[in-house]
Amino acid sequence: MASSHIILPPDDDEEEQRRRGEDEDPWARSVLPPLAPEQAMKAAASPFSATCVRISRDSYPNLRALRNASSVSLSDAAYVKISEGDFGYILDDVPHLVDYLPDALTYPNPLQDHPAYSTVRQYFVNEDDTVPQKMVVQKNSRRGVHFRRAGPRQRVYFESDEVKACIVTCGGLCPGLNTVIRELVCGLSHMYNVSKIYGIQNGYKGFYSSNYLTLTPKSVDDIHKRGGTILGTSRGGHDTKKIVDNIQDRGINQVYIIGGDGTQKGAYEIYKEIRKRGLKVSVAGVPKTIDNDIAIIDKSFGFDTAVEEAQRAIDSAHVEACSAENGIGLVKLMGRYSGFIAMYATLASRDVDCCLVPESPFYMDGEGGLLQYIEKRLKENKHMVIVVAEGAGQDLIAKSLSTSEQQDASGNKLLLDIGLWLTHKIKDYFKSKKVEMTIKYIDPTYMIRAIPSNASDNVYCTLLSHSAIHGAMAGYSFTVGMVNGRHAYIPFYRVTSTRNKVNITDRMWARLLSSTNQPSFMSLEDIDDQARETDRIANKPPLPTGINHRAANSLDQSASSSTNGEI
Ligand SMILES: Nc1ncnc2c1ncn2[C@@H]1O[C@H](COP(=O)(O)OP(=O)(O)OP(=O)(O)O)[C@@H](O)[C@H]1O
Ligand SMILES: O=P(O)(O)OC[C@H]1O[C@](O)(CO)[C@@H](O)[C@@H]1O
Ligand SMILES: [Mg+2]
């Protein structure tokens, strides 16, 4: 299968576009800096070739759809590497060293002589293996978008003693950071005999402002039992030029970057600069976010641990609520733009009567509002538990407090305390009605993200780290992640161009509503609007006017607008 950096619409498509008076699509014409002719010949002969192909009229709508779905910007388009196969198969590939270093040498993978791994039949991944982005298909579905499967390759692009690897952690804390650091160090050392591994201190700024720490399997031996990150982390401080200057000066050739959406954007910038300078360096992103808001991947590491720990806070809130007359327990959980922790913690607990997330707007007063629901629930049950994600209801607080928006060092909006605000609002409401009640507000957010990862997250972190190492050794640059249960190498632009959000028009949110019995706070028109928006992002054809989401769903039982694995 040929792969392509250059995506050109077929001539007749252009003709047709012109006839129809449509603008030419500039994205389709974007090109990478051209290789010299003899380099292009070599690159074309490589299995990771960066050759120019013309794509068929059939697949062009697919590529356009891919672009629309993932909001690829024009500047990103130059780095997009897409190829097509039969029946609408598309490979959204990750960059490789030979894209710009066609003379790069390969070596046999040292794992073939490793006493543990050499016994495994078919240990190496077939170079053509890919992982589908969408699992649920119908008989006549196109095969759709795929990502390159992660795993060890038969040949690698680095000799063991040539590797100089570094690891950095950025953004907020998350359970499992230390496990990933440990497994990167131990994996590089034990699987690939790499001995030069460095830790960058306190996030991106540590590349140019701190000493690099030497990491060995011994020095990281028991760090997975501790929360936080032994390397330190920070927000802000990303200076691409200074970072790459230091990578270049110190001869680093594998960069492992652990962090959330902002961090992966930073990793992409670093990759682009490395490529511009023609350096033989692999960049491997390991996505980290307690909010589980990274696009494409099934789930981020530490998320299970966070949901489990949140149960302890919800249990305490329940005990407090049950032990008072008209008792309310209110728990705030993390989730800046995405309410996954709140949703899963609610679904797991079964004691929660109301869950508020940023994706589902709500209102306080009047018919169908939150206060009316609380009053009703207290009448029925004499107690209630509310879980609120920190990003929920920010518009309501901003309106009532009229504060100016503030940002952290990375440019993220600083949130106002929804838990505290709700506590006051609820108290005031019952006071005005002369109803006795007690509310206890629990904010366990930093306690949740500071703990070590649980057993299942530890295994997940280990596998992610190993996949990252195999990919970097094989010369790829990517974000690693699990897609439909399989590890894959995902292009940076795919994980940074959208954010994973709770889909309030899919079955998971419906399950939550039916378990809490809370109102949806939405009109049927709102629900249709949300569904249309979700379908637009998922690049599904718009519903015909006059057909609402519920009607369409009953026509098409298999319809799923979920971004990550609705069951
Ligand atoms: N668009 C960007 N380009 C380059 N670097 C960025 C970009 N956005 C953020 N960064 C850098 O990435 C690092 C982490 O970003 P941020 O603080 O937003 O955390 P995050 O990785 O998104 O993790 P979290 O899940 O905690 O939000 C910071 O050092 C920041 O400077
Ligand atoms: O207080 P900090 O360290 O900026 O982190 C808070 C943010 O970090 C996150 O946990 C994401 O990592 C968000 O949920 C939260 O808003
Ligand atoms: Mg972020």
Indicate the topology:
Layout: E1 4-8, H1 11-20, H2 37-45, E2 51-54, H3 60-70, H4 74-77, E3 81-84, E4 89-93, E5 107-108, E6 130-132, E7 144-149, E8 155-156, E9 164-169, H5 177-192, E10 196-199, H6 206-209, E11 213-214, H7 240-249, E12 254-259, H8 261-276, E13 282-287, H9 303-322, E14 327-333, H10 340-349, E15 354-356, H11 370-381, E16 383-389, H12 394-401, H13 418-432, E17 438-442, H14 445-449, H15 455-473, E18 478-483, E19 486-490, H16 492-496, H17 507-516, H18 524-537, H19 549-555
Parallel strand pairs: 1-2, 4-7, 9-10, 9-12, 12-13, 13-18, 14-16, 14-17, 15-16
Antiparallel strand pairs: 3-4, 5-8, 6-7, 7-19, 10-11, 18-19
The structure holds adenosine-5'-triphosphate, 6-O-phosphono-beta-D-fructofuranose and magnesium ion.
How would you portray this structure in words?
- There is one protein chain.
- By secondary structure, the protein is of the alpha/beta class.
- Helix content is about 35%, strand content about 15%.
- The chain has helices at about 10-20, 35-45, 60-70, 75, 175-190, 205-210, 240-250, 260-275, 305-320, 340-350, 370-380, 395-400, 420-430, 445-450, 455-475, 490-495, 505-515, 525-535, 550-555, and strands at about 5-10, 50-55, 80-85, 90-95, 105-110, 130, 145-150, 155, 165-170, 195-200, 215, 255-260, 280-285, 325-335, 355, 385-390, 440, 480-485, 485-490.
- The strands form 4 sheets. Strands 3, 4, 6, 7, 9, 10, 11, 12, 13, 18 and 19 form an 11-stranded mixed sheet that branches. Strands 15-16-14-17 form a 4-stranded parallel sheet, sandwiched between helices. It has a two-stranded parallel sheet with strand order 1-2.
- Strand 18 (about 480-485) and strand 19 (about 485-490) form a beta hairpin.
- The longest helix is centred in the middle third of the chain and has 20 residues, at about 305-320.
- The chain is elongated, with a radius of gyration of 25 Å.
- Mean pLDDT is about 85; it is low at about 1-35, about 45-60 and about 550-565.
- Adenosine-5'-triphosphate (ATP) binds next to helix 8.
